[in-house]
């Protein structure tokens, strides 16, 4: 049976590219977009389904749940991809309000999606969740002076992505019938990195660990964090 996939933030960047790859692999893909126009345009280009979905809004997430529940009756794969970088200011200048904005999308957005969609995932024969995290949230990478990640100082974004990997572990422990994993695309040339995109790879490369985790079979892992080279240190 064709598997149903929902990708948050699917109207551009890594989410868009993941939708394209999964559609080509034969999955039935829904892209979530917080903006109707951008979402509809992307879904038409890709030939996939579209659902209005702002991960910071209970109302929007509940409507998306109702729409997919009504049309499909279950969800096989949820890719929690929507994310923002926030501002790259000196840590001393970051206010609680600045951090709250980033956490509301990157962290609470995942909790909102999980809290709402778990019942629909539980109706799948093999529910899979992929959380798009980052090496910038990996303690192992940011403390290793040999990595590019150690050169970045971003209070809000880095700490939000550390939370994403811990959320992944805690959901994996609490949901033994699901496979919940985190992916690090690595530095990828999208709007999110903007001016920092010098050595970044194209999105078609960045999606590799996301697609790998989205397409695991029932023997695949849960509670892991990978990039294109294998396991990422916590
Ligand atoms: N690019 C990298 O180097 C890199 C590396 C590691 C991890 N990541 C992660 O990869 C994920 C995708 O990022 P990207 O690089 O593809 O960036 P991007 O091109 O800026 O795409 C981000 C997507 O998230 C959406 N989004 C933002 N806030 C949202 C909200 N409240 N509700 C729903 N959707 C929302 C955006 O929608 P709009 O078009 O409406 O803004 C857009 O579709 C993020 O979680 C990011 O942290 C990226």
TrEMBL record:
Keywords: NADP, Oxidoreductase. InterPro entries: NAD(P)-bd_dom_sf, Sc_DH/Rdtase_CS, SDR_fam. One of its GO terms (molecular function) is oxidoreductase activity. Signal peptide: none annotated. The keyword NADP applies. Belongs to the short-chain dehydrogenases/reductases (SDR) family. This is Putative short chain dehydrogenase. It comes from Staphylococcus simiae CCM 7213 = CCUG 51256. The lineage of its organism: Bacteria, Bacillati, Bacillota, Bacilli, Bacillales.
